[in-house]
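Predict structure. Chain length: 194.
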Amino acid sequence: MASLLERLDNESPSELKRRSTESLKWFRQRIRRIKTNSEQFYKKSDLDKTRRFLEGRMFTYFYDPKYKELLPYYDTFPCVIIVETYASGFLGLNLHYLPPRLRIQLLDKLFEYTNNEEFDETTRIRISWNILNSVSKLRASRAAVKRYLYSHVEGSALEVEPKYWDIVAMLPTASFSKASVIDVYRDSRNKING
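Prediction complete.
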């Protein structure tokens, strides 16, 4: 299976333009109608909503951290690939914590762990905390690993279809509180380079 970066490198200018146009169209049709208010989110979004979080899939949702007073910063609209689920919540990779270049590099490496090459409703990224913690090519995950509580997810989440994972991962939808995105990226690079 060709890596995401290899596929992008091999695309012709017209194919890259089509991908960019598709990304923009997807963004315009779906994401721009989402407001920071969860009530408006329910009313105006045309994306499929879910309360079921599945390991190996990507979700985006509104989140109000339980211990936000203690956190130096946090993302109120995470874009997460679920790693493990628990009775009270889940462990996930919030891609928003990574600068775009590191984000796409990590996603490219994670695609090596998919259960199939179809990128359809059956596709999952088969990854665990042990793999993330031990495989050096996945070290960017250090800055993105976060634990979330179901009780602090505001409303329903949007499950991102696998064929849109690369597009949604690159959308500028992060909503950080208590720090700028530049500060978050700087901190993330420090965690990765340790």
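Summary: The chain has one domain: 4-193.
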